[in-house]
Amino acid sequence: MSTTRTIERTIPAIRTVEGGGFVVHRPFPTRLLMDFDPILLLDEMGPVDYAPGEAKGAPDHPHRGFETVTYVLEGQFGHKDSAGHSGTLREGDVQWMTAGAGVVHSEMPDPEFTRTGGRVHGLQLWVNLPKRDKMIAPHYQEIPSGGIPVGVSDDGRVRVKVIAGEALGVKAAIETRTPILYQHFSLQPGASVETRVPRDFRVFAYALSGEGRYGAERTQVRARQMVLFRDDGDSVTLATGEEPLEVLLIGGVPLKEPVVRYGPFVMNTEDEIRQAVIDYQAGRMGAITH
């Protein structure tokens, strides 16, 4: 018999500005919570409606030592990197980028979207890499919306897009370096689901819209709050009342390794951070051709 986890605490997302001036809502890292091993950051980008010529993004910037996961809910995100890789992510698409030893990356709206304007809403997750993988070669996994596995509850009232891990009998297409769970649940009014979570995973929920009822206590929590679950069960309960609920369930097995952060570099020691800065400044992570 499974035991559903209880809630440890909730943390509100903080509104801030990133990159070239786009607004994000960030539950962590903030002064209330610096990290959630093995997850380093979650940003909800938008939703924002851009007039023609107003769209903003994140110009050229480096990464080393972790992975970035971009999930588009509305609109589109253009991207390029120093290895010559480029493309456009559209509604429902996921890009799982393993920065590893280092890559210079840009996430800017493509010219057509800048010209027309429109709504943008997306998510970026940073996943830490274990020490053994910090310096592996950079690579991508890009899954179009139609390629993301979807699970549905027996009563048809709960739907889940499985980006990483397994839920409602469906397994993700993306392969992760360590055990990671990243799932987008959609619940109809009055619906609930108890989803299995391995006991060695740390997990949290983050609602994009709707007021959810979480954990064994069915605690009511509004959207844009991070709900941290205790490690006291092998399942998580998600439910809603009279309105639909769009909620992410995210987590993984803690690495339990030292974490040293400096902007876009996440390593295990100060010396490794200094070397990352030197390598970037010397051009060893390459440059983007625009």
UniProtKB/TrEMBL annotation:
Fe cation binds at H61, H63, H105, E107. Gene3D superfamilies: Jelly Rolls (2.60.120.10). Its cofactor is Fe cation. The keyword Ubl conjugation does not apply. Keywords: Iron, Metal-binding. It holds the Pfam family Pirin_C. One of its GO terms (molecular function) is metal ion binding. It comes from the Bacteria. InterPro entries: Pirin (IPR012093), Pirin_C_dom (IPR008778), Pirin_N_dom (IPR003829), RmlC-like_jellyroll (IPR014710), RmlC_Cupin_sf (IPR011051). Binds 1 Fe cation per subunit. Residues 182-286 form the Pirin C-terminal domain. Residues 25-127 form the Pirin N-terminal domain. Belongs to the pirin family. This is Pirin.
